[in-house]
Design a protein that fits this description.
The chain is mainly beta. It folds into three domains: 334 residues, 6 Propeller (Neuraminidase), CATH 2.120.10.80; 93 residues, Sandwich (Immunoglobulin-like); 80 residues, Macroglobulin (MG2) domain (Immunoglobulin-like, Sandwich). The chain is built from no helices and 39 strands. Strand 21 and strand 22 form a beta hairpin.
């Protein structure tokens, strides 16, 4: 690809290589106001563990006096959007490269700066900064989104107000950014790539979230009709999921003057995004109206559940929330809806505020396979039938079937190739499965070896009469039970031909041969020995002559 490089604007700085990001953590843009320039802030990337919220690392982006973000007024909160590239290798950010000419409350976007700074951060926390004139003067810049082009470079969208969305090519090796090309002049708040398509949100009027006519445009491109809902106002960041043949979108909203109407809105589509239906919203912090909305989002499927991480809308001391939606794709939600879980991950320190949010480089965000039907296991005599189905398969190689008798020590017992992009139904039979509980997992392996685990599913294979023998004498009954697994406590009872219980005993069932002796005096006749337990009932008739 031919590139005209901004050599007179390019500045690359490698720093912060003292550590590495940990995959599957969260990174948030933290802004701290400058003591001299009240509406300008220094910037750092703060890494947090999503479970427990422990602080892991901090990467200062304002070293070198060339990277700042606005701070203070409501409109300043619409900046600092952080994105992870679609190959999960780079974090990208877009900010200002100079401070106001004098102290005070001057807005950064009103100083008519001739250029901005694009930032890329890799898994080693190496920071590359490139000065660009993609947005200049009073045009507000908000964020950047990158995707790999296959030759080591990245197609990159720089988005904001005035100049709208512009396209450049970022070369990590030479630390250069090509001359930007206008894609669309839409006043863009956030831009994301989902399933190979570029989407953008806008706060202007009721535009909401738009998809571009060209999937990944590199030149002028129109946007489709406003979506997902014409009446959606104050749209900020958004997350899109495919659930089977349907799509679910979550959109964070926050007005300049915060209101109780702000929140995280849910929409669903059953026609591949042509039309959308509203399905309720979740509030951030009703008790503090200024913190009720959400401006920055990221999310993925975790443990088969839609999981969203969201930054609340307050300017300072705001929070990262974890929101889990276990409801159906078309269920209307609210804070109290069964299946909705909301928890706090981390809160910005006093005097600072959180902005953009993304997963760390190396995180598995988009699964190559989407399950339409979960793994199920059903015992059929001594066999177990497994079944599952996919809605889509991208870059997938195979499913491996794993088995355990204790729920933790799994071993592989088979596999199924995956080569159907639009999904397929799968089955597998585990012949002569052990008696008792059998646990199964799927390990989906993609083409580069990454694995995703689904399950477990459990099936109980009952003991058969062949596993149970009885010997009787005038002074007692001897019973033997051969079990391949340890089962829960059961009971053994002896009844005569009329159904009268003549003996009963609680027993434990261990792996292997279990021998039980019931001392009792029996008259001649026909008797029945019964073993009972959870998922177990064996009956054996015997006679004493």
């Amino acid at each position: 690809m031919k590139k005209t490089l901004l050599t007179f604007f390019a500045l690359a700085i490698a720093a912060c290589a003292h550590a590495q990001f940990t995959p599957n953590n969260l990174v948030v843009t933290k802004v701290t106001p400058n003591s001299t320039y009240n509406r300008a802030a220094t910037v750092s990337l703060e890494e947090y563990a999503p479970i427990g919220g422990a602080a892991v690392s901090s990467t200062n982006l304002s070293i070198g006096d060339d990277f700042y973000l606005p701070y203070g007024s409501a409109s300043n909160q619409f900046t600092g959007y952080l994105n992870l590239s679609t190959d999960q290798q780079l974090l990208t950010l877009y900010g200002y490269n100079q401070l106001p000419p004098s102290a005070g409350n001057t807005e950064l976007f009103s100083i008519n700066a001739p250029s901005r700074t694009f930032v890329a951060v890799n898994a080693n926390q190496t920071v590359t900064k490139i000065v660009t004139n993609a947005h200049t003067n009073a045009n507000v810049n908000r964020g950047a989104m990158a995707y790999p082009l296959g030759d080591g470079t990245y197609g990159t969208y720089l988005f904001g107000h005035g100049a709208g969305t512009r396209y450049s090519v970022y070369d990590p090796t030479s630390a250069t950014l090509s001359t930007s090309v206008s894609v669309n002049s839409l006043n863009t708040i956030s831009a994301k790539i989902y399933h190979g398509k570029l989407y953008a949100s806008s706060q202007v009027g009721n535009i909401g979230v738009n998809a571009f006519d060209a999937n990944l445009p590199t030149a002028a491109s129109s946007v489709t009709s406003p979506a997902p809902l014409l009446a959606l106002t104050n749209a900020h960041d958004f997350v899109l999921f495919k659930i089977g043949a349907n799509q679910v979108m979550y959109v964070g909203t926050a007005a300049s003057a915060a209101t109780a109407a702000d929140g995280l809105f849910k929409y669903y589509s059953t026609d591949h995004g042509a039309t959308w239906t509203a399905a309720g919203k979740i509030d951030g912090n009703i008790s503090t109206v200024a913190d009720n909305g959400f401006r920055f989002l990221t999310g993925r499927i975790e443990n088969d559940k839609i999981t969203i991480y969201a930054v609340t809308s307050n300017n300072t001391t705001n929070s990262i929330k974890k929101i889990t939606d276990e409801t159906a794709y078309n269920t209307t939600i609210g804070n109290a809806t069964v299946g909705i879980t909301i928890s706090n991950v981390a809160t910005a320190p006093t005097g600072s505020g959180f902005r953009g949010l993304a997963f760390t480089p190396g995180t598995t965000v988009t699964l190559p396979v989407t399950l339409a039907e979960k793994l199920s296991a059903k015992a059929l005599g001594t066999h177990v039938a497994l079944s599952w189905a996919t809605a889509s398969e991208q870059h997938s190689n195979r499913f491996e079937i794993w088995h355990a008798t204790n729920g933790k020590d799994f071993s592989q017992i088979g596999q199924r190739p995956t080569n159907t992009p639009n999904g397929a139904k799968y089955s597998f039979t585990h012949n002569n499965a052990p008696k008792g509980n059998n646990y199964y997992q799927l390990q989906q392996v993609d083409q580069d070896g990454q694995r995703t685990t689904y399950g477990p599913a459990v099936a109980f294979v009952a003991l058969s009469s062949a596993d149970f023998t009885v010997k009787a004498s005038r002074t007692g009954v001897s019973l033997q039970l051969n079990s391949e697994q340890a089962l829960k406590v059961g009971s053994i009872s002896i009844t005569d031909i009329t159904g009268r219980v003549v003996a009963k005993q609680q027993v434990a069932i261990a792996i292997g041969i279990n021998q039980y002796e019931l001392p009792l005096t029996l008259a001649k006749g026909v008797y029945v020995a019964t073993v009972k337990g959870e998922g177990l009932q064996l009956v054996k008739k015997f006679a004493l002559n």
